[in-house]
Amino acid sequence: MSEITKHTDIAQHPAGPEHGESIHLPAGTSWPIVLAFGCTMLLGGILLGAYISLLGAVLVVFGCVGWFRQLFPHEHAEHIPVVVQPIHVETVRKKIDRYVLPGNLPADAEPPVSTPIMAGLKGGIAGGIAMVIPALIYGVVAHHSIWYPINLLGGAGLTGMGSLSTASLNAFHPATFIIAIVIHITTSLLVGLLYGALLPLLPRHPIVLGGIVTPLLWTGLLHSSLGLINPTFDVRISWPWFVVSQIAFGLVAGWIVSRDESYRRVQKLPFAMRAGLEIPGIMHESDKNGNGEGSH
């Protein structure tokens, strides 16, 4: 039975051109257009009249029959000759210069593998301790009590602190003391981590930028938003003393981070390598040094 079917197919499908000389495609037909137009008239006759629907029904019947005969019992096909033409591909891309690394890098210079987290934590702890000193001096000089600035900071976690008098703020409150410690330690560690991540990207002597400019920017941000964060602190704060405390934190934290050995090695590299940028020249050198293979 399979042999009969095979011979029948061969007899009914004349062989086309050799493979590679033509493309076997379905033959073009207009019957789908006739069928679609008939369906449109058949439905449009609901508004335009019965004769339009009748004409549409006739076109639907002719379209279905014609399309069916186009596909059965065998699909009508045609062979399209293939004209082979040579294709010349030309690029119009501009050439990009590779980043040239300095040839006189120190022997101990190496790209940053990870953020100096420990250096940032150490800087945050030291800066937090240094920041406490000006705040306590302010409390003693202005209000004759070290608890005044502590109660102001701890008031961020308690309600009703705005109604307390100055004499009450000068007294010791265990709740505000604990909250102030938590806020101060958390903030100092987070800002220290930020210093550890960003200082390697700054100029080679970042103490001024990290110890003065950054605290001033941070103070400006707090000045505009402190009313929402801690209304009591916003009303009673002494901004000159606050700036002094922030600068003390920035100078000490920046100095601790800059003294770290990993930070010193990173600072000997160009900015692109310190920032970890993936540019052709650096990626080539990294592959060459790390994998023993250059980029191809």
From TrEMBL:
Name the UniProt record assigns to this protein: Putative membrane protein
Gene3D superfamilies given in the database record: 1.10.287.70
Residues spanning the membrane: 35-68, 125-150, 170-195, 207-226, 238-258
Keywords of the record: Membrane, Transmembrane, Transmembrane helix
UniProt KW Membrane keyword: yes
Residue ranges, annotated region (Disordered): 1-21
